[in-house]
Each structure stands twice: as structure tokens, then as C-alpha cells.
Amino acid sequence: MEQSVCRARAERRREQRFAAHVPATLNWEGTSQPVRICNISIYGALVSGAWLPVVGERVTLIADHLEVCGTVIWNGPDRCGLLLSHAIDPRAIISQADNHAPEASTVLTLQEVRPGHYI
Q: Residues of 41-70 as b/e, b for ≥16 C-beta within 10 angstroms?
């Protein structure tokens, strides 16, 4: 039985990963932390953040048009890998984030007309 679980996880990991830069929230054990989804696949995600859960922790990852449970399968100082509990569409998550991306800001050029005064 254990061998079939490992094989299923290995097969899931073979799915294509998509680079992402999606703001999200990671919830676990009454804790809610802002994270960024760095890459995502059909069954997994790499998230970065300041404070992340330990390996084995059950979590909920929330972003625009996404709420999925998962388990932390590895962690580092500022990032961790999640095995998601069910298949998701990574392209849909990335495209939703792109649709909500802020527009490019306008560049203002100021001219100093006298010390401390600009137009």
C-alpha cells in the first residue's frame, strides 16, 4: 500500500510546473500568513513567505479563484512545497492573477523651480 502511495506522488510530481507570481494566503492551525505562489502544477505549489508551516502540516492555500487543501512536503527558510489534495488548473490560477495585476504606473517628472519647490 505504501509503495502505491509513493508511486502516485511521484507520478503527480511529473506534471508540468508553471512559473507564477500570485499573491495568496496560507492557513494552518489557526494561523493565516500572506504568501506568494512562485510556481504551480496540477497537484503542487511552491510558495514563499516570511513564516511557513513545518513538514507534514495540513494547510489551505487561498488565492483569487482558488481554495485548496494540501500538505507541506518540504520547507526551507523562506519557502515550502505543497502537495495539493486534488487536481487544480494551474493556467487558470495564473491567468486570473494576470487579469488582476495592477496597471503600469505613470512616471512623473518634477522640475525644481527653486529649492524645495517643484512643478
A: bbbbbbbebeebbeeebebebebeebebeb
